[in-house]
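In response to reviewer comment 3 from the previous cycle, which asked for concrete evidence that the modeling workflow produces usable outputs, we include below a single protein chain processed end to end. The sequence was submitted unchanged, and the resulting structure tokens are shown without manual editing.
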Amino acid sequence: MDIDISQFHDIFFEESFEGLDAMESELIGLNIGSADSETINTIFRAAHSIKGGAGTFGFTFIAEFTHIMEAILNEMRNGQRDVTADSTNLLLQAVDVLRGMLTGVQKKEATDEKSIAAMHLRLEAMLAGENVAEETNNVTDLEGEEQTKLSSSKGWLIYFRPHAHLFQTGNDPVRMLRELASLGELSSELIDDKLPPFADLEPEDSYLAWQLTLTGDIAKDDVIEIFEWVDDDCDLTIEAIVAAESEEIQESAHDYTQDDKQVISAPIENEQKSDIAASPTAKPIVDEAPIENGNEKVAVATSASSIRVGIDKVDSLINLVSELVITQSMLSQIGDNFTPSMLPNLIDGLAQLERNSREMQEGVMQIRMLPISFVFNRFSRLVHDMSNQKGKKVKLELIGEQTELDKSVIEKIGDPLVHLVRNSLDHGLEVPEQRLATGKVETGLLQLKAFHQGGNIIIEIHDDGAGLNEDKILAKALEKGLIDATDVLSTEEIHNLIFLPGFSTADVVSDISGRGVGMDVVKKNITSLGGSVEVESKQGKGTVFSIRLPLTLAIMDGQTIRVAGENYILPLISIIETIEIKKTDIKQVSGKGELYALRNEYIPIIRLYEVFNLTPHTIELEQGLVVIVEGDGKKVGLFIDDLLGQQQVVIKSLEDNYRKVRGLSGATILGDGTVALIIDVSGLMALYHEPSLALLTHNEQGA
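The workflow returned the following structure tokens.
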């Protein structure tokens, strides 16, 4: 009987990508000159497993490529070959290439055979004992006059299509185009083929693309740098404009390398982890093989449709199902022969059903819980590559990697963490000379720490760098008009200025940066997960960013409220207190609406029936309640009719089932079968402060 082994392909790819992650992590941790034998063995075993699996499934070219890596590693573990920086860097590049080969086979797409062949030759050269120091470019098969002609580019052809969510990352295409124009002569052609009808426009989405021609004597690295911070958020092609007489040579060069063309598109996240090698200049690509470009390393993102679950969690669920079946059988018997005397048994059975259901819910949620190491592990490569690029010495410490949180949170927290880690590496930690001059050790410390606290997870990013420069922050805030010269701010308030929209930190503040990326976007992304971020810093000592997140985005503790006959859910974590107030307690302030004085601070009042365009049962404050809630570090009072009760609710996405609605984070089905909308407190505050919403106070309505 013939067996279709293709049914095992998914398992092979999943295990192979895990092996590549292990190889990458261990290679980065190798001690040059005196590598630990167990570390070498771990890398060797991963390569050996990939080679064996590839051979079994008929992926011969992958097996042959991995075989030569295995041979080099075998010499290292047998003491026949020293571990050097050059050999480690080459093996890391080979891991990137191998990742691209596996992705190409998995997606049934063509791979760049020339680039693979070039890496194969370099590995063979290393095995033969030749010097394989990292090359400055990838055009390995062109020499002399041809190489000179190829490098004599007179500019660049650039195709740039931002992904729909680009604005939400804080990036601005216009700013990037303006920076391109500063490099040389820029002409552009607008592409609006994806522009929807006006009625379907989403104000926060990007729909346009550009075909750009940049002429002049411009280094490619300068062009790449402008797009560096949007590498995950756009499709980008960069092609050299070569003199007419060199067109044939240019075409030949493209046969050998992708150095003059980079295609960047959004990474496809693995459900357990990202398979992207987190290099500061890495460009996750989907349709092309990895590219080398000097110190650039590009890895291919992959996806999987499964997660691994411990057998203990499965056994626990099976036991819970058994208990549920027993309870169902008992209730069924009671229902078939019910008499009033059986009422106590019915009550006991329902209580048992509730207990079993709750335990099963917790068990299922445990299956979705994954260690945060799936996020943390990507930073070893980022720190390795970026510290080398910046000429810095950095020690990365990971603490609490086994702290678990929901897979949905893991998938969404990666980008904010990457921004914070990049900023610490780029501008927080100093170069060795500066550290020594200030009495510090030359190696900076970057620490990622995760731990549980109550029903939340806390993630901290520590660095012992220069700290936030408070004088520069204040100067920038004054320049932007975010504060007045007469304002007296505490240290904490000064630090929190970096989170304000419009506060650009790329060119002034030394500890947080990013081309076109503001810390307000990082905070917005974290807030969208129901979390919060805080910063503590001491100048000359370092900075700590603390992120607080819910353990899961699927279930939350909520407070049901009644507004104009409709039920809504408020996240319990956002509620500070509920109060009864009188009309005389309210102050009318021109341009500010209604304010309530609560213990030495004035709280704006939002009438929810106005926001949701409902017909109120009452507009008199004495006849309702005001719920004081907090979001984005600010407080508002929500005028409602009544509080109904607290319960855990299962969150259903509005965006997936309908469309994005500002001020609402989702919906849930209540116990009586009705649907209740879940209020997004931060989004509600943004609507309140947005003039176009035209929220009117009670008096302004003429009531």
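Residues 395-403+427-550 form a domain with the Heat Shock Protein 90 fold (CATH 3.30.565.10). We consider this sufficient to address the reviewer's concern, and the full set will be provided in the supplementary archive.
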